[in-house]
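Narrative of activities, Objective 1.

The group set out to show that a structural description can be obtained from nothing but a protein's sequence at a throughput compatible with the screening campaign. Below is one input-output pair from the validation batch, recorded exactly as produced.
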Amino acid sequence: MKDYTVRLRDFWFPDLNAFWWLLLALPALYFFQTTIHEGSHTMAAFVVTGNLPKLAPFPHRARGDGFLNGVTIPQPNGSTSVTVLERTSCTSQALQSNKRLAGFAATPQFVDLGLIAIFTVIFVSTKSSNPKVRFLVRLWYLAACLDFCYNTIRGLIGGCLYGRDWSIFMVGSDIDPASFALLTMVLWIVFIASHFMWVNRSGWSEPVRATEFWDYRWIAFLLGCLSLLAVLLSIFISAPQIIKKSPEFIVLFTIQIGALLWYWIYFGLTFKKDKPLLIA
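Output recorded for this entry:
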């Protein structure tokens, strides 16, 4: 058990700078994974209808839905919607005609599982000693894990909140809560088992060279690009159901701006750090 704990630490927190940058990367990572999540809804609707819905991959309060990490909005002309006969309530068994965004509601969760499986294969079958490559791969893996867990954890007890992907999948597929809890539990067991497997068998959980404070120049550049895109989309994408004058939007938008400034200031300072000091 001690060996497993050490290997787990060496993967997630190989040194103090890598740990701090894992925290500093969270605002950009939040936007990145939200874009993948909502983007999978977008592509699922496109495959069915041949048309793209509106993508709003930023946190906000939505009329009738409360807080959302992001949203995929059907086109008002109905070109990205389908009408199906299905349940539309967690408490009612009645089937009714329902017009909704086209595509499989739980697409993001299965995309997450697919990514987790791909990363597991990478971790088990390859080895990398480059701490910056490992950092970026670790970030994406973390994002997929968090997204999967956040969106499915309610399903472990058969919980239902209609309007959320996993619950829409349960209700729309007319699966009873007990069977759905079992299905969710099986997926979680596979997810957790894969984590144990690669930590025990992977070269990615072996120690690598410790990073220095100024080693994250191009990672900061990438994170800065993501945060810049997050800020621009938050400003320019609007819809009647998106409430931007709300604490949820304002607070998280402010955090994203702060992260954006940090990434670019740090990126600029790394070049100053490279210049030799001139002594008169």
